């Protein structure tokens, strides 16, 4: 009915903590995808050079450990930098609100006018939001930041490390558990299926088209595996 408040749609993201949830979901999906592709490339490259299961195991475990730590460190540094920037911007906004509240109110009203509100209504909205939470009101409109929902570097780092490890275990275990005649084909098949899943998940969490994400993911993974396996065969032939 007209005039009734409409709640948030169930299929749309809302609420405090959304930024952090999306942050670790992004890190998790990307971490799993990188773990699958990079480890598959390593073990297939070694399998192309030798049939020695021990050599494949050592290379795969080393790649898993190095990749997981690298992903965690990279996410932590990246997200920490983002959080530092957000906190610096919020500190600046707090100072401006404390030192010149009238100009800040006028600025907020002007931003709402730019969004399409009439000047009188924009000023009234700005006043009400400022009375409720001045920093949150300004941070949202001016900076696109929720002061109560800053990105968490530790969450991203752990999500990335754990998901990379889980993703890496798939090609590593697959290539070790099957016989020499089947290991390459089964690994490629399992990795392709996993990449299709992570591609779909990335599109689902990012509200993008799943088909395009799946195709990109699978083709990229197949290319990486083909190149590393070919290099492994070439090096193995030359060394052998």
UniProtKB/TrEMBL annotation:
<feature type="transmembrane region" description="Helical">
    <location>
        <begin position="24"/>
        <end position="47"/>
    </location>
</feature>
<keyword id="KW-0812">Transmembrane</keyword>
<feature type="transmembrane region" description="Helical">
    <location>
        <begin position="54"/>
        <end position="73"/>
    </location>
</feature>
<feature type="transmembrane region" description="Helical">
    <location>
        <begin position="214"/>
        <end position="235"/>
    </location>
</feature>
<dbReference type="InterPro" id="IPR008217">
    <property type="entry name" value="Ccc1_fam"/>
</dbReference>
<feature type="transmembrane region" description="Helical">
    <location>
        <begin position="156"/>
        <end position="177"/>
    </location>
</feature>
<dbReference type="Pfam" id="PF01988">
    <property type="entry name" value="VIT1"/>
</dbReference>
<keyword id="KW-0472">Membrane</keyword>
<keyword id="KW-1133">Transmembrane helix</keyword>
<protein>
    <recommendedName>
        <fullName>VIT family protein</fullName>
    </recommendedName>
</protein>
<feature type="transmembrane region" description="Helical">
    <location>
        <begin position="184"/>
        <end position="202"/>
    </location>
</feature>
